[in-house]
Amino acid sequence: MRVGPFTIQLPGAMREDDPYWDAFISAPPVDPNNVIAGGIRGLPEGTVYPIKTDVHSPEIMSRHVKELALFLGADRCGIAALGPSPPAPLPRLGEGKEAEEYPFAIVCVLKADYDPRSAQGIGGQAPALKGAYVTFNLGAWIRECGYRATREGDLDAAGLAQRAGLGWVDGRGRFEVPGVGPYAYVTNVLRTDLPLAADGKAVP
Question: Choosing a second label site near 136 at 20 to 30 A (CA), which of 1, 66, 118, 194?
Answer without folding.
Answer: 118
